[in-house]
Amino acid sequence: MCMASLGGPSGAPAAPLACPHAYGVPAGRALSPRETGERVEEIWKSALGLSGGETDATFRELGGRAIAAVRIVARIEDELGIRVKAGDLYGHPRLDAFTRHVVAAGQAARPWPYGGSTISAWLSPTC
Description:
The chain is mainly alpha-helical and 127 residues long. It is built from five helices and no strands. The chain has helices at residues 33-48, 66-80, 88-91, 95-108, 119-123. Helix 1 crosses helix 4. The longest helix has 16 residues, at 33-48. It is globular.
C-alpha cells in the first residue's frame, strides 16, 4: 500500500508522494556491479543525509542508527532487488565494504521476484 493513499492527520488528504520504484531499475535490466555500487552509494548518502565525500567514516560515525539501516536495506531491496539485512551495515560498516557485500549478494542470488519489501512503505516517506 502506498502511503500517498493514506489520509493525513485527522483524515485530511495526504500530499502526493513519489514511489521509490520511480527511481528503480527498468524492468528486465540487470545492473553491472559498478552500477550497483553507484546506486548503493546514492542510497547510503541519501539515507544518512550526506552530500560530500564522507566515505571513510563508518555507518555509526555518520550518525547511522537502526532506523537508517532498515531504510537503506529496504531501498536496496526495492530499487535493486537485492536482499541484505540491516545488521549487515554493522558487519560491513564502511561504504566500500558494504557496497562490496551488496554486490556479492546480488551476484550470489537472483533478485527477489515479488517486488519490493512491504516494510519500506511504513518506514520511508515514499511507498
